[in-house]
């Protein structure tokens, strides 16, 4: 748990990366100088690691320090070899403030959601030049912009430039026809050439006469989506004072020309923003609409820039060199990734279309099911961001409660709505789909998530190491949880009665071979004596023991054996980095977003289960395959992205823990909650799985533990896990549909 510190103080936390190497605790020195020595050694480690407070675009710096001989000798002579040896076995994590330090510490705690994105605003000087360029306004003239003939600029010409230029020419003709709007017609004519190819050109605002400078007002607004602070703007009320508003040219412009161009630029802005890599074009259109088109024509000057030319007079309003930037996938709005921002309107469209068009007059069930499933992805992101924000700003108890309550809300919402619908319709297929989704989540998080992270991380790093002791705790809980979940299934296989739907004599001989279909173990023989007297009590017992084991695991890793993760938050800070925490979401805001996202998640899950029935009945694909792929892995996409980002930073421990924690929560929290739900609301859900689910889950857990045995891995081992996962998917794809579907 992160310790409290001054708001402006830079925090550093150290995590043990190689637990097999013995480490001398700070208090083993016996004197009052122990803490002081540890602090000085921490500063020495920071100097070794060259952590001058800059993390680039990673948010935390994670690597194994190596001590040069010239630097390690004075430290060891002054403070002893043991203290400096403790530095060698530490991994350094650097955070900008106390809130980020809490978030990083929570990432290493068992049972807490692992979150990569920042929950606070990063200091501008700590960002890389690439990221700074993403958030800069299009009003900076470079000394040498390079060639403007790029693929992105040509794409702009093909998508927007040609028809936008023609529209300006048309508006210019209309303005010339009105005679009064001739000045604006000339402006549109000049802008037609500019927007055909705006690269390497600049739009400047000509200085106003001194008699009119009093009309300029400073506007301190900022555009949260398309830029930073907005410079001074010409206010319409000043037009009244200076005579512009009453002149016929301005009236013709505001009535005939400006609305048409605003609609065109709005279309360009929305389209470019949704394409993400063309966000500079969206900024260009937004700035042209809000600045250029509202200026009097005589105050707008368009200049062609040369390679080394820097205009000396007039304010630069627009200056663009590139239409596309591939790094805009890092762009965030108020801490929210641009992909989550773009998918948020999809949630509104899904809810309106799903509940307004309830009789499928506009679209079919397949489209509504797809939209509802896609809407779960941004909602999962917002839920994860809210949980991380609340946990980072709260104490350990509040964070643990929030993670335990809302950590599995995405999956549970869908499972419960599906079971309710299956119970109302008397259709056992929904219960089988839920079991397939549970198994798919377990198998995917054990094989696919860590395997994919190993492959992608192994492309950048030849060999990756992780904390084998912390991974061993999760592996032990996985063995326990899988054994407990499938214990009723194994019990039914031993004591159940095999019943087949129909059998045919192949050899026409009464003693010959019979071919039987739809065979299953019947637990309801003799009025359900076996199930109600033996299987059901076993299910309830397992549902009580699994959450208890989960709580014991929390107590073990977070209270009595915290040294397994060895998270320390020190008070050392680097000079020049005194930053207070500016959180993106406050605790109350995060709580409101968490509740709203959960409510929308429930609505989307209800729509998904409402329109999945035609897909299950009419599809030629096995219901097993639909459950283990689409329904299981789509809600986990934000977690997969987080795992990949951690792996690219050579922090495979967190990538592995993401998959293990989800798998453990499926067995120890989600399944017992579903069993508890069936007590109060009877459904067709029983904790008896098919043989395919049992074999796939157990084989996946055994293989995962074998791969993670030595605490190191590479891309080849990750490829093995991914290939085994795809083989299991092929088995589910060709498997016949479960009984009852």
UniProtKB/TrEMBL annotation:
Keywords: Antiport, Calcium, Calcium transport, Ion transport, Membrane, Phosphoprotein, Transmembrane, Transmembrane helix, Transport. It is a multi-pass membrane protein. One of its GO terms (biological process) is intracellular calcium ion homeostasis. One of its GO terms (cellular component) is endomembrane system. It comes from the Eukaryota. The keyword Ion transport applies. Residues 151-201 form the Inner membrane component domain. Residues 26-36 have a biased composition (Basic and acidic residues). GO terms for molecular function: calcium:proton antiporter activity. The chain crosses the membrane at residues 154-180, 258-281, 336-356, 362-384, 396-417, 437-459, 471-491, 538-558, 590-609, 621-641, 662-681, 687-708, 715-735. Residues 1-36 are annotated as: Disordered. It comes from Certhia brachydactyla. It is found in: Endomembrane system. Residues 368-487, 590-732 form the Sodium/calcium exchanger membrane region domain. It holds the Pfam family YccF. The keyword Plastid does not apply. This is VNX1 protein. InterPro entries: CaH_exchang, NaCa_Exmemb, NCX_ion-bd_dom_sf, YccF. PANTHER family: VACUOLAR CALCIUM ION TRANSPORTER, VNX1 PROTEIN.
């Amino acid at each position: 748990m992160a310790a409290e510190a001054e708001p402006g103080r830079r925090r550093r936390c150290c995590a043990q990366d190689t637990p097999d190497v013995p480490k001398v605790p700070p208090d083993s020195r016996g004197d009052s100088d122990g803490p002081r020595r540890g602090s000085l050694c921490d500063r020495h480690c920071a100097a070794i690691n060259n952590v001058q407070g800059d993390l680039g675009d990673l948010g935390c710096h994670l690597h194994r320090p190596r001590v040069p001989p010239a630097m390690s000798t004075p430290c060891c002579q002054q403070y002893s070899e043991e203290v400096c040896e403790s530095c060698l076995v530490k991994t350094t994590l650097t955070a900008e403030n106390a809130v980020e330090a809490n978030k990083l510490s929570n990432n290493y705690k068992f049972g807490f959601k692992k979150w990569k994105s920042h929950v606070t605003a990063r200091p501008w000087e700590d960002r890389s030049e690439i990221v700074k360029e993403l958030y800069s306004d299009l009003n900076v003239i470079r000394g040498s912009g390079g060639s403007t003939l790029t693929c992105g600029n040509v794409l702009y010409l093909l998508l927007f430039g040609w028809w936008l230029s023609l529209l300006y020419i048309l508006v210019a003709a209309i303005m010339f026809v009105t005679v009064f709007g001739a000045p604006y017609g000339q402006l549109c004519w000049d802008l037609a050439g500019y927007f055909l190819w705006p690269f390497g050109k600049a739009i400047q605002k000509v200085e106003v006469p001194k008699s009119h400078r009093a009309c300029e007002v400073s506007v301190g607004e900022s555009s949260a989506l398309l830029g930073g602070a907005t410079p001074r703007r010409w206010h319409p009320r000043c037009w009244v004072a200076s005579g512009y508003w009453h002149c016929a040219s301005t009236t013709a412009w505001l009535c005939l020309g400006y609305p048409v161009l605003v609609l065109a630029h709005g279309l360009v802005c929305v389209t470019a923003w949704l394409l993400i890599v063309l966000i500079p074009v969206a900024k260009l259109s937004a700035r042209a609409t809000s600045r250029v088109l509202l200026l009097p024509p005589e105050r707008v000057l368009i200049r062609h820039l040369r390679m080394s030319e820097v205009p000396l007079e007039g304010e630069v309003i627009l200056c663009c060199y590139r239409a596309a930037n591939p790094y805009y996938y890092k762009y965030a709005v108020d801490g929210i990734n641009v992909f989550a921002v773009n998918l948020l309107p999809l949630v509104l469209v899904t809810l309106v279309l799903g509940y307004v068009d309830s009789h499928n007059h506009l679209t079919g069930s397949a489209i509504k099911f797809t939209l509802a499933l896609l809407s779960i992805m941004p909602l999962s992101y917002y839920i994860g961001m809210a949980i991380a924000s609340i946990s980072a700003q709260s104490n350990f108890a509040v964070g643990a409660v929030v993670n335990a309550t809302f950590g599995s809300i995405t999956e549970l919402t869908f499972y419960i709505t599906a079971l309710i619908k299956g119970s109302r319709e008397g259709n056992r297929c929904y219960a089988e789909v839920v079991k397939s989704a549970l198994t798919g989540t377990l198998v995917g998080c054990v094989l696919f998530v860590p395997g994919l992270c190993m492959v992608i991380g192994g492309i950048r790093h030849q060999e990756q190491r992780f904390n084998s002791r912390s991974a061993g705790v999760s592996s032990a809980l996985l063995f326990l949880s899988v054994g407990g979940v499938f214990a009723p299934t194994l019990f039914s296989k031993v004591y159940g009665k095999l019943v087949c739907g129909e059998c045919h004599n192949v050899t026409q001989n009464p003693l010959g071979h019979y071919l039987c279909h739809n065979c299953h173990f019947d637990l309801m023989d003799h009025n359900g004596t076996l199930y109600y007297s033996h299987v059901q009590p076993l299910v309830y017992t397992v549902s009580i023991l699994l959450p208890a084991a989960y709580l014991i695991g929390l107590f073990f890793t977070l209270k009595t054996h915290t040294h397994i993760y060895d998270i320390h938050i020190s008070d050392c800070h680097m000079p020049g980095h005194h930053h207070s925490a500016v959180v993106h979401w406050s605790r109350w805001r995060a709580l409101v977003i968490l509740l709203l996202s959960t409510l929308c998640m429930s609505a989307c899950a209800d729509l998904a289960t409402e329109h999945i029935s035609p897909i299950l009945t009419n599809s030629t694909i096995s219901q097993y395959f639909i459950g283990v792929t689409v329904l299981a892995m789509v809600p986990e996409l934000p977690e997969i992205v987080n795992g990949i980002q951690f792996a690219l930073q050579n922090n495979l421990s967190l990538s592995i823990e993401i998959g293990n924690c989800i798998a453990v929560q499926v067995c120890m929290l989600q399944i017992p909650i579903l069993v508890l739900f069936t007590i109060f609301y009877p459904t067709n859900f029983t904790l008896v799985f098919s043989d395919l689910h049992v074999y796939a889950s157990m084989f996946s857990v055994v293989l995962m533990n074998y791969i993670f045995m030595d605490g190191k891995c590479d891309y080849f081992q990750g490829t093995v896990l991914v290939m085994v996962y795809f083989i299991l998917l092929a088995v589910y794809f060709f498997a016949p549909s479960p009984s009852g579907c």
